[in-house]
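Customer escalation, tier 2.

The customer says the design service returned an amino acid string that "doesn't look like it belongs to this structure." They asked us to rerun it and document both sides in this ticket. The original C-alpha cells are below, unchanged.
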C-alpha cells in the first residue's frame, strides 16, 4: 500500500499521507483507498490540490464515474467557466426547457385522462390541480439551472443565498395559500416559485453576465410552441367521443401533442430542433473527462 493512514482528533475518519497524486493511481492503491473509506467513513487529503485532474483521479478510486449529460458541465470545461459569459447557461436553458415546457404544458392539457389512466377515476378530483402544478414546476425547472452556473464561476455563495431565500419564501407562500384550501396551496407554490425564480435570475444573472433579453429569447420559442400545442390538444379533447377509454384518449392526444409541438417548433425556431438533435447525437461522446463524484474530502494548506 503506497500510503499510510493516520487517526484524526475525532473517532471518525483517517488522514491519508504519502499518496502520490501526481500520476494515475495504481489499481491496488485505489482498492486500498476504497476499503479505507468504507472502514473509516471519511478520508482527509492535505495539500494535494483541487484541480480537475486530481479530483478525477481520486474519484475513480471510489466508484465508476458517469459523464454529465451536458458537456459544458463536465471536467475540465466546468472548471473553466469562470472565463466565459452566459453562453453555457443559456445553452443549458435552451435544451432543458425545450423538453420540460412541452411536458408540463401537455400534462396540463391532458390532466383528466392522465389522472384516470395513472390513478383511476376515483382520483379525478386532483386533475384540476395539474395545470397549476405545471406552472410551478416550469419555474422550478428554470430556477435550479442557475446554481451549477454560479458555482462554476467560483461564486457558490450566490446559490447559498438563493437556497436561503427559498427556505423563507416557499414556506410563507404555502402557508398563505393554504388559507384557501388545496387549490390555494397549489397557487401558493406558483406564487412562491415566481418570487424565488425572479430573485434567482437577478442575483445569478449578475454573476454569469446574463441579460434578460437573452433569457427571454432562450425560453420564448419552446414556451410559445408549448402553449399553442396545449391549446390545440385541449380543443381536440373536447371533440373526442365521451365514451372513449381514457387510455385510448391519452394515446391519441399525446401523439398529437408531440407532432404539433415538433411542427410548431420547427416553424418558429428550426435551429432549436437542430441543436437538440445535435446534442442527442453527441450525448454519448466521451471527448472530455467525466464529472467528478466526490467521495472524500481534500484540504489545501
Amino acid at each position: 500500500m503506497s500510503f499510510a493512514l493516520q487517526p484524526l482528533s475525532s473517532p471518525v475518519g483517517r488522514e491519508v499521507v504519502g499518496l502520490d497524486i501526481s500520476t494515475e493511481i495504481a489499481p491496488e492503491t485505489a482498492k486500498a483507498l476504497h476499503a479505507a473509506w468504507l472502514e473509516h467513513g471519511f478520508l482527509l487529503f492535505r495539500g494535494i490540490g483541487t484541480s480537475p485532474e486530481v479530483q478525477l483521479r481520486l474519484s475513480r478510486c471510489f466508484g465508476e464515474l458517469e459523464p454529465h449529460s451536458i458537456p459544458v458541465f463536465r471536467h475540465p470545461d466546468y472548471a473553466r467557466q469562470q472565463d466565459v459569459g452566459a453562453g453555457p447557461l443559456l445553452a443549458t436553458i435552451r435544451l432543458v426547457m425545450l423538453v420540460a415546457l412541452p411536458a408540463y404544458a401537455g400534462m396540463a392539457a391532458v390532466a383528466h385522462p392522465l389522472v384516470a389512466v395513472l390513478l383511476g377515476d376515483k382520483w379525478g378530483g386532483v386533475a384540476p390541480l395539474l395545470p397549476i402544478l405545471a406552472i410551478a414546476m416550469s419555474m422550478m425547472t428554470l430556477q435550479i439551472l442557475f446554481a451549477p452556473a454560479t458555482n462554476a464561476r467560483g461564486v457558490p455563495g450566490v446559490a447559498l443565498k438563493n437556497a436561503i431565500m427559498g427556505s423563507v419564501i416557499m414556506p410563507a407562500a404555502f402557508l398563505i395559500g393554504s388559507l384557501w384550501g388545496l387549490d390555494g396551496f397549489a397557487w401558493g407554490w406558483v406564487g412562491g416559485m415566481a418570487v424565488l425564480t425572479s430573485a434567482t435570475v437577478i442575483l445569478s444573472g449578475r454573476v454569469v453576465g446574463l441579460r434578460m433579453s437573452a433569457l427571454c429569447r432562450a425560453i420564448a420559442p419552446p414556451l410559445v410552441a408549448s402553449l399553442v400545442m396545449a391549446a390545440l390538444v385541449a380543443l381536440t379533447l373536447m371533440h373526442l367521443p365521451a365514451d372513449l377509454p381514457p387510455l385510448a384518449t391519452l394515446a391519441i392526444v399525446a401523439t398529437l401533442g408531440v407532432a404539433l409541438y415538433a411542427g410548431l417548433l420547427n416553424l418558429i425556431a428550426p435551429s432549436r430542433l437542430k441543436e437538440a438533435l445535435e446534442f442527442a447525437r453527441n450525448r454519448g461522446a466521451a471527448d472530455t473527462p467525466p464529472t467528478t463524484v466526490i467521495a472524500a474530502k481534500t484540504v489545501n494548506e
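Tier 2 assessment: The sequence is consistent with the input. The chain has a mean pLDDT of 86. The longest strand covers residues 4-7. Sent an explanation to the customer and offered a walkthrough call.
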